[in-house]
Specification:
It is globular, with a radius of gyration of 24 Å. The chain has an eight-stranded parallel barrel with strand order 5-6-7-8-10-12-13-14. Strands 1-2 form a two-stranded parallel ribbon. By secondary structure, it is an alpha/beta fold. The termini are far apart. Bound molecules: D-xylulose and cobalt (II) ion (CO). The site of cobalt (II) ion has 5 residues, from loops.
């Protein structure tokens, strides 16, 4: 049995409590009250907040212009297994102090990749046992696992879309182990983010063949996981670019079409990330609406970009107006299908104190909680829902209803138009809608 470490990494910070909006304690929730019921569910159930292992434990603040600035105390051991255990101790201490119920990881966030595939698998098996024990002691669960098939130079031309079959096979082996790890830890979902599934230049790329490979590969991964008893969802996480010039999982619309083309639509849903939406020149609400309409609003990677430079800066969420719009779609769709809110966000390079990571997650959770309360009020007591519905009331009966039921042909439209004569304009009332949202904020 692995020995669970007893070192405290975040000394002086206790469990974060809900103290209400009048509190001026920076290490307390002002809005996230885990057991408060809103729209029929507790906040805890609505959100399923998760910590992202990669940013919170592995990220050190490095950027292309300089090294990391954060000297994590859990990253000082030389032995990779000891180092991974220390990291797990810090992770679970953090998640527990935040009062979150979930975490998410890439395989090699948990433990460093070794020189060979066989040795990497052994390492992962050791840390999996350790994590199992930490999960059962704390009650913290795995929201999703994934595999890092983009950092190692072997994946520079892609993983499942690599023009070299042997690299594709290597990605298959790695993802098989990542699926085994996720299943062993009771993971509720499994994510595919196609970091290098795309191209830098079309001149050297057979896009059609690469897409066929990716579709077949994902089907094989699904079949393997199902054969091992995995009942959860598979999620694709759209992102239009970065690191590649163009990524195949460009945005929600592209991915939904891809899933249907390759017959993956019954097992796969979407993990939508705010900063990926804006990188694709969409709003987060646009991406969520598309996913919800396809029955594929699976999970959310919460963060935000930067309005001035547009990069994938992965900042913590703090825009209340935008998050209210997200929560309107969220509530309308009846919540996420299997997933939760994973803070795929990182501290700024110059946020180097240990309490900064708490402030970041507290702020993120409070923005979602506050937005949920506002969106619930907008839906339940403002004219918003009826105004929106009434814009379509010409389809609720008569010829409009017959059209929706497929009972009219094109010539019928022609005759109806002639009978109607010129029409009066119907205002879209956008400014009124905007004012109603602001009134409730
Ligand atoms: C990258 C990104 C990933 C995925 C998981 O932009 O969002 O961290 O969430 O691979
Ligand atoms: Co993400």
């Amino acid at each position: 049995m692995a020995l669970i470490g007893n070192k405290e990494y975040f000394k002086g910070i206790d469990k974060i409590a809900y103290e209400g909006k009048e509190s001026d304690n920076p290490l307390a929730y002002k809005y996230y009250d885990a057991d408060r019921v809103v729209a029929g569910k507790t906040m805890r159930e609505h959100f399923k907040f998760a910590m992202a292992y990669w940013h919170t434990l592995c990220g050190t603040g490095g950027d292309p212009f300089g090294p990391g600035t954060m000297n994590h105390k859990w990253a000082t051991a030389v032995d990779p297994i000891q180092s991974a255990k220390n990291k797990a101790d810090a992770a679970f201490e953090f998640i527990t102090k935040m009062g979150f119920d979930y975490y998410c990881f890439h395989d090699y966030d948990l433990i460093d990749e070794a020189a060979t595939l066989a040795e990497s698998e052994k390492r992962l098996a050791i840390i999996t046992e350790y994590l199992k024990e930490k999960q059962s002691k704390s009650g913290v669960k795995l929201l999703w696992g994934t595999s890092n098939c983009f950092s190692n130079p072997r994946y520079m031309n892609g993983a499942s879309t690599n023009p070299d079959f042997n690299v594709l096979a290597r990605a298959g082996a790695q993802i098989k182990t990542a699926l085994d790890t996720t299943i062993a830890l009771g993971g509720e979902n499994y994510v595919f983010w196609g970091g290098r599934e795309g191209y830098m230049s079309l001149l050297n790329t057979d896009m059609g063949r690469e897409l066929d490979h990716m579709g077949r590969f994902l089907g094989m991964a699904r079949d393997y996981a199902r054969s091992k008893g995995f009942k959860g969802n598979f999620f694709i996480e759209p992102k239009p670019m970065e690191p590649m010039k163009h990524q195949y999982d460009f945005d929600a619309a592209t991915v939904i079409g891809f899933l249907h083309k390759y017959d993956l639509q019954h097992d796969f849903k979407l993990n939508i990330e705010v900063n990926h939406a804006t990188l694709a020149q969409h709003t987060m609400q646009h991406e969520l609406e598309l996913a919800a309409n396809a029955g594929m609003m699976g999970s959310i990677d919460a963060n935000r970009g930067d309005y001035q430079n547009g990069w994938d800066t992965d900042q913590f969420p703090n825009n209340i107006g935008e998050t209210v719009e997200v929560m309107l779609t969220f509530l309308k769709a009846g919540g996420l299908k299997g997933g939760g809110i994973n803070f795929d966000a990182k501290l700024r390079r110059n946020s180097t104190d240990y309490d900064d990571i708490f402030h970041a997650h507290i702020g993120g959770a409070d923005v979602f909680a506050r937005a949920l309360l506002i969106a619930d009020k907008i839906i339940s007591s403002s004219p918003y829902a009826s105004l929106r519905k009434n814009r379509y009331n010409s389809f609720d009966n008569g010829k409009g209803k017959q059209f929706e039921e497929g009972k009219l042909n094109f010539n019928d439209l022609y005759e109806i138009a002639h009978a109607n004569g010129e029409l009066t304009l119907q205002s879209g009332k956008q400014e009124l809608f905007e004012n109603i949202i602001n009134q409730y904020i």
